[in-house]
Design goal:
single chain, about 475 residues, alpha/beta, Cobalt-precorrin-4 Transmethylase, domain 1, Methyltransferase, Cobalt-precorrin-4 Transmethylase, Domain 2, Rossmann fold, 4 domains, 5-stranded mixed sheet, 21 strands
């Protein structure tokens, strides 16, 4: 059974108790490109919902609750509608919320969709613009988007969907999101009559330590079989002939800092790449084991999001159990994304409680309405438990056991530092060496290694061999 109602402008929340939402552009990748106003909003925030392309180094500076809402092709932590409802959920609790987006919110950033939802609920908000990827890529590659006597017009386009690729009649065209469609875009440009000798540049990871730029002609790129990796930007136009191979950004040395004070590298010669010196704990494996072995003690499973579903079932299967062991339980979700994830395991939830109820019912009211109060609820969630949700469930007379099954606000191992772009590694302590060793089995010989002291040097030799 699904309890689902439309929100609309009929929401009856008291405006005095509503929070405030900032829709903020974080820039294209370099944390130092954040604006002063964005920094102020982040320092005042109670909750930060941040995207995949936002630097973790940037988010780590702030004390708010952090929720990673990353979206990559075929791998979404949150669907857009779920992000919208997560923003609303926190704002209706009176919190100050920052929705932190890569680049600029209004340039292929879905900021318009999010403020439409905020308007429906009567939640106050403001927009803080960010440096969009095209501007960042232009500056960090020395490819001017406009240039006197060369380019007097520029257009921003997207590489999706491939059936509707636009080719405007401008001197310079910038295409966003082309990792999987670059050849489709180039074919569309050629079909519009652009010369085969038109200059083309692909910039991957613009403004980041691992930025790469590939240049050539339209004809050359169409014949290439080279993969393009996300995030990628495509620039087309005669202004690319101004590209300087040894530009200001590529000349800088990249130093990986594992803890310690980075001031020794704070000059114009270095780019600092931060590596967390501590390991982030995942699920409490002992608690997970105890809950799964005692699953008969619970009468209800409650899932807030698809990550909770995914990781709970991962541990359920690892402990030799399957869905048959849940047959005695009611299973509920607080959103459609979690319900959809349950379907991948062959389970239709007993109820899907939409947080957008126009009747103004909280979770406890909706559960009571469905006759699902006074239960012993197992609440799979992130390690950073949302106590307000647990409290709402308890209001209906339920006994609630939160169970951390994943880390909320962290990215996956695929986001590890690419050592191919690092020139030097600074280790501040033996603990940092051990943490680094848990992710990397070796250090390329070409990389300079700088230990903070002799104890750290001894640990480096112990972990990586006598030659370090």
């Amino acid at each position: 059974m699904t309890v689902s109602t439309n929100s609309g402008s009929g929401q009856t929340q008291d405006p005095a108790h509503k929070g405030y939402v900032y829709i903020v552009g974080a820039g294209p990748g370099d944390p130092e490109l954040l604006t002063i106003k964005a920094d102020r909003a982040l320092r005042e925030a109670d909750v930060i919902l941040y995207d995949d392309l936002v630097s973790p180094d940037l988010v780590e500076q702030y004390g708010a609750e952090k929720i990673y809402t990353g979206k990559r092709k075929d791998s979404h932590h949150f669907e857009q509608e779920e992000i919208n409802q997560e923003i609303v959920r926190h704002a209706l609790k009176g919190k100050k919320v920052v929705r932190l987006k890569g680049g600029d919110p209004f340039i292929f950033g879905r900021g318009g969709e999010e403020i439409d939802t905020l308007r429906q609920y009567g939640i106050d908000y403001e927009i803080v613009p960010g440096i969009t990827a095209a501007h960042g890529a232009s500056a960090y590659t020395e490819i001017p988007l406009t240039m006197r006597k060369v380019s007097s017009s520029v257009a921003f386009c997207t590489g999706h969907p491939v059936s509707k690729i636009q080719v405007p009649d401008t001197d310079t065209i910038v295409y966003y999101m082309v990792a999987s469609s670059v050849h489709d875009v180039l074919d569309a440009v050629a079909a519009k009559g652009r010369s085969p000798e038109t200059r083309v540049a692909v910039i991957q990871n613009a403004t980041r330590y691992n930025q790469q730029t590939f240049t050539g002609t339209l004809d050359e790129f169409r014949r290439r079989d080279k993969a393009v990796y996300s995030p990628a930007l495509l620039i087309i136009g005669a202004n690319i002939s101004q590209f300087i191979e040894n530009n200001w950004y590529s000349r800088k040395k990249k130093v990986l800092m594992t803890g310690g004070d980075s001031r020794r590298y704070r000059n114009t010669d270095y780019i600092i790449v931060n590596f967390p010196c501590r390991q982030v704990a995942g699920a409490d494996l002992d608690a997970v084991k105890a809950c799964i072995e005692g699953i008969d003690d619970f009468s209800m499973l409650f899932f807030q999001n698809k990550s909770a579903v995914k990781y709970f079932f991962q541990y359920l299967f690892e402990h030799g159990r399957d869905v048959r062991h849940l047959a005695h339980m009611s299973i509920c979700t607080s959103g459609r994304a979690a319900a959809a994830e349950l379907l991948t395991y062959g389970i239709i939830p007993d109820c899907c409680l939409e947080s957008s109820s126009s009747a103004g019912l909280g979770l406890s009211g909706m559960l009571d309405k469905e006759g699902l109060a006074h239960q012993h609820i197992l609440l799979p969630c992130s390690g950073n438990v949302d106590e307000s949700v647990a409290a709402e469930l308890r209001e209906a007379g339920n006994r609630v056991t939160p169970l951390g099954v994943y880390v909320h606000g962290t990215q996956q191992q695929e986001d590890a530092i690419d050592l191919d772009f690092i020139d030097e590694i600074y280790f501040s302590s033996p603990g940092c060496v051990r943490n680094f060793r848990s992710l990397y089995s070796s250090i390329p010989e070409r990389i300079k290694i700088t230990p903070a002291d002799e104890r750290t040097a001894d640990e480096l030799r112990a972990q990586f061999g006598a030659g370090t």
